[in-house]
Amino acid sequence: MNLNDHGDSNHLFDASNTEDPYLWLEAPCEGPVLEWVKAANAPALDTLGHSTGFEELETTILEILNSKAKIPYIVKHGDYFYNHWRDAENPRGLWRRTTLEEYRKPEPAWETVLDLDVLGKEESQGWVFHGSQFLRPGFQRCLVSLSPGGSDAVVVREFDVKLKAFVPDGFAVPLAKTDVSWIDADHLFVCTDFGPGSMTTSGYPRIAKIWTRGTPLEQAVTVFEGAETDMAAGAFHDSTPGFERDFIYRRPTFFTNEIHLLGAEGSPRRIAIPDDAEPSFHREWMTVTLRTPWDVAGKSYPAGSLLVIRFDAFMEGNRAFTILFEPSPTTSLASAQWTRHHLILNVMDDVKNRLSVLTPGELGWERTPFAGAPAFGTLSAQAVDEDESDAFFMTSTDFLTPDTLSFGEIGAEPETLKSMPAFFEASGLEISQHFVQSKDGTRVPYFLVAKRGLILDGSHPTLLTGYGGFEVPLLPYYSGISGRAWLGRGGVFAVANIRGGGEYGPGWHQAALKQHRHRAFEDFAAVAQDLIARKITAPRHLGILGGSNGGLLVGNMLTAYPDLFGAIVCQIPLLDMKRYSRLLAGASWMEEYGDPDQPEDWAYLQTFSPYHNVKADTDYPPVFFMTTSMDDRVHPGHARKMFARMRELGHEAYYFENIEGGHGAGADNRQMARFWALAYAFLFKTLA
């Protein structure tokens, strides 16, 4: 099939032209689109898939993904600790459980609760496990979410973990983007697709209903409706013993939230905090994380602060908050995690985690060090069961240190439960952090992983990645795949902590919103320029990789800074900023990017819409577009159309679309191994 059959090769598509010759590629992956995808995939599979060393690379990545030495992360439900595990024998996975005593052993004995591969064969469906919600206090019944092929849309079914079977005539919600919450054994909050008009323009539920056991879903009773233009709306139940309560909410935008306490008589009471603040509830306490400054009761609280107050007192009008965290120029709040009696505070200082413990008492809140936390690395701490104990799991890692999972009680040194093996030789490598000035003078950090004593001659293949959106930070992480496929083959790796992310709190994110998006791109370009100026690499050896919003980032590097790079991997990307808000969940991101249907917004959006800015007379580095057909969050049409456009104009481009996978690399380890092997084969082919 000719990839340009439905396009006019003489038609130059630009930002001022409203016609889109590749609009047809936004259709589902069937018929002509499926044939186009197969034809588009062929060159990458033929050229890269048969290149020297590809089979070994793919096998190596698959071995890492299937390794039985990986940490089986666990979650406590009742007396058991549950884990979803995938390996070579179980491609879609086993949902299994064990006890803590057994888990401490090098080879725990696991009890299989649900075999996803067996279920898939029985039902002729490639199910992907998307989690469970247990009914308290018995923890025998749960709601299991299953996705066909890895999409965000799921079916929800009631499951009995004692009988290891789905409940006959139990609760079952058809395929949709669904939120559910147990109220009690016979009632659920259900937010799903109830038919025409029940979903928002972003593709999420806008109606919350109470569903009674034994009645059809169609008879569920509406308790709340959001607007069609909201991002989403719903309801949930807090089942904490002694503090049971119901909440309803609407999210007008991605970063705003109106939440109400639902009274026993069904009347809602608004929780009067700023719309862009995020509340959290634990027993008698409510914490509030601020995205913007808040003046209340004669006091001013800065953006990025964490406040706490007794919830009942707040609902009665009290506004005497206690500040638990206030940001500085280099610090931001990563998370705040309750145990039964304490709050674990995780703070980032120049993109490095620091843990401490806060404890309420008669004289106020006491702050103490977190025992046993490493001095360097990415740290996270989660309560084992915040209703029952002060036990926690702590995970620590960095670019060269495999993950370690520890278990402990607040105030005591934690014990190491599991450690991931080293998947690549790191003894000759070192991690360093650097800072560079962006175009407007802003100090931007980045991490570098390279050989110790690296000769600065500009010859080293270097891979730079970034994200820069939605207040999401990029922290040091251990990746056996990139370690084996890139660092282990002599490559240098860099991570840019650019504006738009959450590395320095909400202000760092808000600095690159909408018409200021160019700042994120300028930050990333400044890091690339610094790598070149320091002679770590040169443009012909510098590759970049980004996915989702990071795909938009590297797409703009392609069109705005092509001279800086030798290769670009653009994964599951946003690229058509004229139509993104009309595709799948795109409408929910307009607070991040802007509304292309408003002329004043399109005036700046078109400046960072790669699909509209690629030109025939510009020399671009080779680019590899990668996506998945089952992605129901970022539409695969972005990558399809951009690849078609690049090919139409005669530029070097590769394409690969996995037919499954959702908003990720694949639905199982074999698919993910193929996805990443193609990406790294492309990078070494073009850079080394």
Structure, described:
The protein is α+β, with helices and mostly antiparallel strands and 688 residues long. Among the domains are: 23-62 and 434-687, 3-Layer(aba) Sandwich (Rossmann fold); 330-420. 19% of the residues lie in helices and 32% in strands. The chain is built from 14 helices and 39 strands. The protein has an 8-stranded mixed sheet, sandwiched between helices. Strands 5, 6, 7, 8 and 9 form a 5-stranded antiparallel sheet that branches. Helix 9 (549-560) links the parallel strand 36 and strand 37. Helix 2 crosses helix 14. It is globular. The two termini are 32 Å apart. Mean pLDDT is 95; it is low at 5-17.
Give the fraction of residues assigned to helices: 10-25%
Coarse shape: globular
> Biggest sheet, strands in spatial order?
32-33-35-34-36-37-38-39
Structural class: alpha+beta
Q: Determine the oligomeric state from the structure.
A: single chain
Number of helix segments?
A: 14
CATH architecture of the domain at 23-62 and 434-687: 3-Layer(aba) Sandwich
How many beta-strand segments?
39
CATH T-level fold name of the domain at 23-62 and 434-687: Rossmann fold
- What proportion strand? 25-35%
Compute the gyration radius: what is it? Answer: 25 Å
CATH H-tier superfamily of the domain at 23-62 and 434-687: Alpha/Beta hydrolase fold, catalytic domain
Low-confidence stretches: 5-17
Overall CATH class of the domain at 23-62 and 434-687: Alpha Beta
Report mean pLDDT, rounded to a whole number.
Answer: 95
Distance between the termini: 32 Å
**Could you describe the largest sheet, including whether it forms a barrel?**
8 strands, mixed
